[in-house]
Amino acid sequence: xxxxDADHQLEYAREMLxxxxxxxxxxxxxxxxxxxxxxxxxxxxxxxxxSDLTQKERVSEQLDKLRSSFWSLDxxxxxxxxxxxxxxxxxxxxxxxxxxxxxxxxxxxxxxLKAHPRSFPEFYDKFCKLVIAPPAKAVTLRMKFLEExxxxxxxxxxxxxxxxxxxxxxIKKEFPQLYELEKVWINQLxxxxxxxxxLDNFFWAVxxxxxxxxxxxxxxxxxxxxxxxxxxxxxxxxxxx
Length: 241
What we know:
This protein is mainly alpha-helical. The protein has one domain (6-193). Helix content is 74%, strand content 0%. Keywords: Membrane, Transmembrane, Transmembrane helix.
């Protein structure tokens, strides 16, 4: 059996620490199997014949293709594609397949969420990607999106963490079905509330000070240029006169 290298072990440890065993046991198992038997290995599992592996790869590919077009398909076509995939022989894929079916049933709620006054594209796009992400990829995406949700602390070009928290709270209270689809990330956003609120205020104050200083410097430079240009013009007119 191939032994995972140090980098993979560190990545595995980081991802496992973010998972809740009571809510994400299937993802923990899936990630553990990937660590023990990487996808790049050419040796099949001892309990999976070559024919089963080939079929499993084919079914997995079908799920990936469906996921890539999930939000662009109309409801009828999406249901047809979901029904056409048979994941019964493969429990891990069946769990993901079932998740996609649940998301498909909630598509009208996603439209309601998108139209909500508190909704904004940065959150909505992340949420839509997370709910249809495979278990292993979802772990990585949560880490990435959690960091991205804090960009607003440093730059006004991005939504502030407060907006993410507010919408997360709305989903938890007003859209319980959507909350169940990705409650891990929603809870992560809400769990950081107290610590980020203090940082939010601090960085907002720092940004305002930096902006004020920058504005003052620019105005001083412009004033100097205007005065210098005025003196130069006066000297030029005197010379010509």
